[in-house]
Amino acid sequence: MSPGTSRTVRLCRTADSAVVLGSTQPLDEVDHPAASSAGFDVVRRQSGGGAVLVEPGTVAWVDVVVPRGDPLWDDDVGRAFWWLGETWRLALADLSLTGAEVNRGGIVSSPWSSKVCFAGLGPGEVTVEGRKVVGMAQRRTRHGALFQCAVPLAWEPHRLLDVLALSGEERGEAAAALEDLVLSLDVSVGDVEAAVVARLLR
C-alpha cells in the first residue's frame, strides 16, 4: 500500500502449488525436502497467521485494500473485519450456502492455529455450523489495511501436515484435530469470486 491508495479488490489465482506462510511464521516449521518432493514452493504472505496450502482451483483467494479515511475504515483492528465478514456471509448465501455466521468476538486459538491458518478463528471470519468457511488476515500501514481472504474449496489437512516439520505423533494428533474444522464447498473458484465481487460492488 502506498500514498494515494484507493479501495481495491484483487482476485489472486494460483498457477503453481505452494505452502504460504504467515508473515512472522518461522521457515523451519516447514519440512523443506518434503515440500520440494511434493512439488510445493514455500513462500511468505504479507499478513500474519499460520500456513496455508494453495493449489490451482482449490482455494479462492481475494485481497481487499481499504485506505485510511475510507467509510469502511475502522481504527479497531478486530472490528475492522466485521463488514468484510458480513459481505462474505451474503456472498455465500448467494451461492446457496445458508446458515453462515460471522465471528464478532475475539481470536479463538487452538493448539495448531499458530502453524495452520484454518485451525483457529479470528474476528470477521465465517463459519457454518462451527466449521470454518472463510479465513482472513490483515496487514496495516499508515496508508490503510490489506485484508487477505481465503476460501478453501477442498479441505485435505493431511496434505499440508505432511510437509510441516512435525513428528509422526504430532502429525497424527493434528490430522485428527483438523479433519472436521473446515467445510469444503462444492463450487468453483470463479463462482466464489463472482459472488463476493458482486457483493463488494453494491
Can you characterise this structure?
Helices cover 24% and strands 25% of the residues. The protein has one domain (8-200): BirA Bifunctional Protein, domain 2, CATH 3.30.930.10. The longest helix is centred in the middle third of the chain and has 13 residues, at 82-94. With 202 residues, it is of the alpha+beta class. It is globular and about 50 Å long. The model has no long low-confidence stretch (mean pLDDT 94). α2 (82-94) crosses α5.
The gist of it:
This protein has 202 residues and is α+β, with helices and mostly antiparallel strands.
Helix content: 10-25%
CATH class: Alpha Beta
Largest sheet: 6 strands, antiparallel
- Please give the order of strands in the largest beta sheet: 1-5-9-8-7-6
Distance between the termini: 24 Å
- C-alpha Rg (nearest Å): 16 Å
Q: Assess the beta-strand content as a share of residues.
A: 15-25%
Backbone shape:
globular
| CATH architecture title | 2-Layer Sandwich
Number of β-strand runs:
9
The whole-number mean of residue pLDDT values reads: 94
Multimeric organization: single chain
